[in-house]
Amino acid sequence: MNAPPENDFPIAIIGAGFAGIGTAIQLKKAGIHSFTIFERAAEVGGTWRDNTYPGAACDVPSHAYSLSFEQSPNWSRRFAESGEIQDYLLSITDKWKLREHIRFEEEIVEARFDEDSGSWTLTTGKGGSFTARVVVACAGGLVNPAWPDIKGLQSFTGELFHTARWNHDYDLAGRRVAVIGTGASAVQVVPNIAREVEHLDVYQRTPAWVVPKRDKVYSERFKRLLTRFPILLHASRYLKYWLSELMGPVVFLDNERLSKLGEKGSLAHLEAQVQDPELRKKLKPDFQFGCKRILISDDYWASFERPNVELVTDPIEEIKSTGIQSKDGTFRPVDAIIVATGFDLGLASAPFPITGLGGRTIDDAWKEGAVAYKGMSVSGFPNWFILMGPNTGPGHTSVLVFTEAQIAHVLGAIKKIRGKGLRYVNVRQAVQDRYNEKLQDRMKHMVWHTGCNSWYLSPDGSNHSLYPGFAAEYVLRARRFRTRDYEIVR
Ligand code: N01
Fold first, then answer.
1. Same domain for 321 and 396?
2. What is the CATH number of the domain that holds 292?
3. For residue 204, how far is its CA from the centre of ligand 1 (angstroms)?
4. Does residue 3 carry a pLDDT above 70?
5. Helices 220-228 + 230-252 axis angle, to 10
6. How large is the greatest C-alpha to C-alpha distance in the chain, in angstroms?
7. Contact 200, 179 (CB under 8 A)
């Protein structure tokens, strides 16, 4: 059967962050232009549009944290800051003329599959609807800010904001400020605002393992060299990637000897950064290395040696109109509270009602937790592919390695459905179940289940967020669309 005319094969991409933009570029490269990107915000960028707090940067080197098919020799430093990553995304969006495909400020609020036509009807928040033969969901997981459930939070009359919604109109200089949380966001914010505020209280519930960052500025000469000899840029990318894979088992395996290696390095860093033994004791984690996300910073721990920074380890009792009261009865007045308490993981439930074959909703399919075949396809939800879906997050390397394999898989599926004139492809339930049984079996050997509390785990203790293994292994399994794994309906 011949491929249908392009306009008869509309594709919807939900979200214009790294995954959505990468998918769109690869579609264009494959000569497929019949796609529309729905973006609920007014600009592309996702994480890098939203996280603009002082010090926001990626903790994966930029030569690896960028698309392999759109590499840039111009990164200013090893770990680019958020603004530079956002500029990169804007530049590739414009280079590939993606704006004409994007419907900004249009949020998808419902999706329903029609078996007869093999198409999805997407409803937007503005009340419009769009019919797509294939949907690529690129909405991301760490998107919606999580607010802590602390008594009296709303009664605070000073300035209050979340790291992912930074208030740039509020000048912190000379203010008394509190930061709640000590995760990946806080570790970047704290040293960067400590220099300008009058006083900073950092409320730590659980200390984190921190390792040196070893950031560096790239010289103009180095960038010119990468421009002239792109092979060097590829080499830098692969070197960084393979180094992270090599270190992977230290970060993700539940193996005391390997964990001790990581802990030793981190403790040496703590000793070098903090002289006060009492302070060191408070900052030292009591859980296995890698159980929570490992943080990288050259100045976070050292911030606590500053006379204007206090580490508060006593739990918060209550927030009052002018400050924070801890359980030991101490009240610390502040002008501003910055909440660095992370995100509501998008995988906890579907982002909006999604109804597949036989009227079954994805919430129903996921009532025991989010599962998908290779993180992308859910049985009963044909022609729907998720990027950065269940169990596709890495604890040790660039998430984009996973994303690119997923894009290749989706492209394979689209070519098959379109090229063979199929109505739909639906991953076989048995294939999906077998994949996830094996995955959860391996999960038992991972460090994430050794007793710490983290966003990696669902409230019932199961893990539907991270991939239990090497990225290379996932790529080899996931990048090809294997027809035999899917039920094919013509
Ligand atoms: O959030 P988190 P994040 N009272 O969930 C604490 C990515 N990211 O925004 O550990 C007091 O890690 C909570 O305490 P505890 C990256 O994948 C990447 O920092 O639960 N404290 C914890 O300390 C990362 O993993 C980059 O005991 C409360 C903190 O808030 C993910 O985003 C940069 C509390 C939340 O830490 C999330 O990082 C930034 C409460 N009620 C983010 N509730 C880079 O690439 C929570 N906490 C560098």
1. no
2. 3.50.50.60
3. 11
4. no
5. 110
6. 75
7. yes
Q: In this structure, which residue's CA is closest to atom 41 in ligand 1? A: 148
254 found inside a domain: no
Q: Do β-strands 354-355 and 129-132 pair in parallel, antiparallel, or remain unpaired?
A: unpaired
Same domain flag for 326 and 445: no
For 303, residues 6+ apart whose C-beta sits below 8 A from its C-beta are 190, 191, 194, 200, 202, 309
Residue ID of nearest Cα to ligand 1 atom 40: 148
Q: How far is the CA of 184 from the centre of ligand 1 (A)?
A: 6
Residues 129 and 277 in one domain: no
Please identify which residue in the block is written with the tokens 């830098």.
236
What is the reported pTM? Answer: 0.95
pLDDT at 2: 40
Task: Looking at the structure, tell me whether residues 309 and 183 fall in a common domain.
Answer: yes
C-alpha 235 to ligand 1 mean position (Å): 33
Expressed in angstroms and rounded, the spacing between residue 181 Cα and the centre of ligand 1 is 6
The number of distinct structural domains making up the chain is 2
Q: Which structural domain range is residue 335 located in?
A: 153-217+223-233+259-339
Closest by CA to 163, choosing from 422, 336, 371, 381, is 336
Pocket of ligand 1 (CB under 6 A): 57-59, 142, 148-150, 180-186, 188, 203, 205-206, 293, 316, 340-343, 453, 455
428 and 302 in a single domain? The answer is no
Kindly state whether residue 70 falls inside one of the protein's structural domains: no
141: pLDDT confidence band, cut at 50, 70 and 90?
confident
